Amino acid sequence: MHFTSARLAEILGAFPRRKILVIGDLMLDEFIYGRVSRISPEAPVPVVEVTRQAYYPGGAANVARNIREFTPGVGLMGLVGECEHASRLRSLLGAQGIGWDGIQSDPDHQTIVKTRIIARQQQVVRVDRERKMAPPQRVHDSALAWLRDHLKDFDALILEDYGKGFLTQPFVDVVGRLASAAGKILTVDPNVHNPLRWPGATAIKPNRTEAFAAVGRPLTESVSPAKSDAPLAEVGAALLAQWDTPTLLVTLGEQGMMLFQRGKDAFALPTRAQEVFDVSGAGDTVIALFTLCLAAGASPEEAAEIANHAAGVVVGKLGTATLTPAELLASFDAHA
To answer: What is this structure's pTM?
Structure first.
């Protein structure tokens, strides 16, 4: 679709006045950078000489990072343990101006940490420290009490499911009811390993694999152009009914995205990526910008196109990256 510069400026200009709450699985992303000059004498593996380390909010917190680039009004809800990793995550969030008072803590919970070791701009290995388990009921009760008190402060909610246990069906049911009753936008980034219903969802954003799995269909080879992908069209129609949502945005990797809406033809968006360097975190960027656009008054088509450009920028960066408003505008200029 074609944006006039005035319409794009209108949507982006509304971003700083919007407030978004991200609810989901929280993680701490650790990046260890180094150089490789030899193979270990102990095993046929490279020896990485560490040169620096960096930490970033990960999982649902990375969605909040993406939103924070465009508005100061972003909050976060999830679960962490009572440990140094949780303290580091809170410190990072505070430094970036992301509200974390909705985050719950539990001494029995292990804060999720994903460590990526990178050498020569390539990921050598990833180490995950996690224990997947649903939180005790007291944690969800406390989170919902906080949400009831603060829901009025937000324009939209995002349910970000990494399949680590925080989002359960009873919890999601209550969140959906609260959002619907308050007339709030509710978007969902689902996970293939945690099949849930999403009551009250304004829009749901699976990737192609998640979409096929959600309707129990074997994954087929993608078809180019995506508009000609008959199995994808059938899955999209089935999910609109199954998830009882008016809008479905399916991300397709190098093929871009496909937007499905009740009563409308599917809308295909070719990728805007100039160069694909690292796809980690691209889905976080999509759900962040798509939701922010809807909250700013954009149509689903407009929101999808802006999110598509945003994803095209971040896949050209290393790691779970974010983008700036200037980079987003530059992408539109490049594709004018």
So the answer is: 0.93
